[in-house]
């Protein structure tokens, strides 16, 4: 199992800041597709993604106990 | 250098007299004097940075006062340009700091000049297009870029140092805009102060030669729902067009220029001319009842819904609509093209 963290409007949509997912062995891209389908999201393409506090790309393969964070960039000021 | 004025800061041994001296010899550029920019400039001017250049395109409105700490009711009543109102306040705070105020947009055409002689660029903007512009010019010219963004109860900040950290483009791809903005979901003042304070803290570390203590993360926080997350700034995206491929996309001329942009709630900005004479326009509009001219702009109230604010640099804010086509129609009708 891995843990997925959601921030900002994603947290609101999913109604949780943190969920467990059965996604060990899958790529970040596959995880994104699973989440988009499960929560009927429009897209996760414009969101920053980190695995264990490191910036990551879609090809990264997830391992047990990884923590993946999805963070929409903040544009106001 | 006025030792007494800075005594508490000099007593902080990480800064001490030598750090204070470095600050007094430094120049910073702050782009956008809104929520983040007013807090940033207030702190840096009080801290005794030698020269502070500020750029902003807006005028003070009453709805700014909830979080934009340098402005007051009189500034809003007079619709003063933010750059001018901020300069007046900052000079009263610390007359030893040189404040250079510029009314206008930071754009591809002037960003090279704006960043000339600058040691750090601080981000007080409200859109990602300008942030990529700042990111790209900073990495091209080897200037650290202190990014900050706020909306709602959330904020995000990082201090990007060319040749040492990845850049904003490594972490956030273009097209990330279209997210929530302060004009759609609001913003609370405490998160503004927190994010801008972090932007300034990293800047002080850098300017006082304490780079070893830089945080080196992109920090996200939500102070209402109690979330905080750091992404380490340790490895660049090897395909990054800015910090890896040195292409700096925001500095390249695009085929079709975006001259018409949605600019906050109920306002469209149109920028087609490089200069206008407010005097000439005023006489052109003399048949219209409601005209207000200041040294900086001319405000023309067309009807109950629509008004135009025309700046000397050619920018026109069409207020009262979000329809860009309609705004252009109004522009053509009254300004001509
Ligand atoms: Zn980069």
TrEMBL record, chain A:
InterPro entries in the record: Beta-grasp_dom_sf (IPR012675), MOCS2A (IPR044672), Mopterin_synth/thiamin_S_b (IPR016155), ThiS/MoaD-like (IPR003749)
Coiled coil spans: none
Domain of life: Bacteria
Keywords, alphabetical: Nucleotide-binding
Pfam assignment, any one: ThiS
Record-stated family: Belongs to the MoaD family.
Stored NCBIfam families: moaD
Protein name: Molybdopterin synthase sulfur carrier subunit
Underlying gene: moaD
